[in-house]
Amino acid sequence: MNRKKTSRLALNVTTVLLMLLCGLRLSAQTAITLEDALEIAEKNSPRIQTSRLSLTRSQELLNAQRAAMRSNFSLTATPFEHRSSRPFNATVGDFQRDNAISSSAALRVVQPIVASDATVTLMNTISHTNVWGDRYRPGGWEEYSDRYFQNRLTLSIDQPIFTYNRRRMQLQELEFALENSEVSHILQRLNLERQVTQSFFSVYQQQQRVDIARRAFESMQQNYEITKVKAEAGLSAEVELFQAELNLANSRSDYENSLVTLENTKDNFKILVGMSLYDDFMVLPDINIDTLSVDPGFAIDQALENRLELRQREIQIEESQFSMIRTMAQNEFRGSVNLSIGMQGNDPNFFNIYDDSYPTSSVSVRFDIPVFDWGENRARIRATEASMESVKISYQDEVNSIIQSVRQVYRNLNNLRNQIEIQRQSVVNAELTYKINLERYRNGDLTGMDLNRFQEQLSSAELSYTNALISYKLELLNLKIQTLYDFEEGKPITDFVFTTTDR
Predict the structure, then answer these.
(1) Phi/psi at 372 (5° precision)
(2) Where are the domains of the chain?
(3) Which of 2, 45, 144, 413 sits in a 20 to 30 Å window from 126, CA-based?
(4) 33 to 36, 196, 331: CA distances (angstroms)
(5) Which CATH class for the 7-69+165-286 domain?
(6) Which residues are bridge partners to 217 per DSSP?
(7) Strand partners, 492
(8) Phi-psi region of 387 (alpha: psi -120 to 50; beta: other; left: phi over 0)
């Protein structure tokens, strides 16, 4: 009997300590709503940070390409250059000696023309040269030296012909890359919203399990006290007290297990949203929902109009067309026209350079004509055509997948509406049943084992009802993601504004 009293005393002490620990833990927690969780994830989530960096990279590459389309100024300076050579003079059959020291500077302005893929270059070169050596004259070998300034100003244009505009295509590809990064960023945010919401409600479900397990534990504690009083008064068999002790121990174990599972679930949530693992919190969800009536035809129309995956497929089709143009141009007939005009002046006096200047000009036309490539280009074109066809098939497959997903979500919503009503009524019935049997247990008409079964039925009904509400909430979110239309607010999603870059 002393052993029993010691065991009961230890059980009571453990119960008190567990309740105190739970109270201290709850008092130090920070309350987080779903909106708070999404805001934290938007700032701290590693996936969103990576996606935002990819978006910034695409934007800066496009900015760089647009800057490259403007006038480019460059200055090349050669402050000192020495040349020494001994060329052979065929007239006298001997070598002569030449030396030169020079310095020069060249200012170049290059302007690409996006409309025609031409390049206009304005270049001015000024130099100063000292030369000396010996050369053969009719009277024999003599030393010579000379000093002069030279300035050369030229304006040239290089225009490709019979080929595609490479600059324009490169610019369009970078614009598509930026748009694709923006789409991927939006999809990442939507995916993060789904994951955070699911994890948020997982924490809430675990909190509910802890609360239900706590209430079951408290109820078992009360039942144990009642059974102990009855057993000590001889109004019930001692085996009932043993069963009550076992039920209480199992209830305490379930409560402790639920606390452990809750902490593990919260750690997963912290990693997902980017919180510190040492922060403690509790979630405060709003699961009071009004079931909605959704028109499946309207939902499908919104999905086909708004889904960004379809835009990604369209971009892939455009890019495959660019790939075809490049493939066809690998062995193409193409040419270029180059026109250059300018002015050159030379004089020993810098200020007299253009006293005896003369114009310079050049015109050239060049053609690259393929002759025979052993069928290489034809094979590459067929391979690219196969890739283009694959992208088009992928687009249609995406359309069918979107329609199928929306139809499935619509069916799930209707089914969950029914489940919510069923589970709500199950909770009412389970509460009433438990109250009736609790009174029977107190009157001695029901065993502790049977009462424990009714307690488990009530806990299961409460969890099922909570899970049905959460499932409906998550399915509404899934419908919003599938259609990019908020059926609760009755308007399309328009809150995805990019603030990291400027178009």
Answers:
(1) -155, 130
(2) 7-69+165-286, 72-113+118-163+333-369
(3) 144
(4) 5, 11, 62
(5) mainly alpha
(6) none
(7) 485
(8) alpha
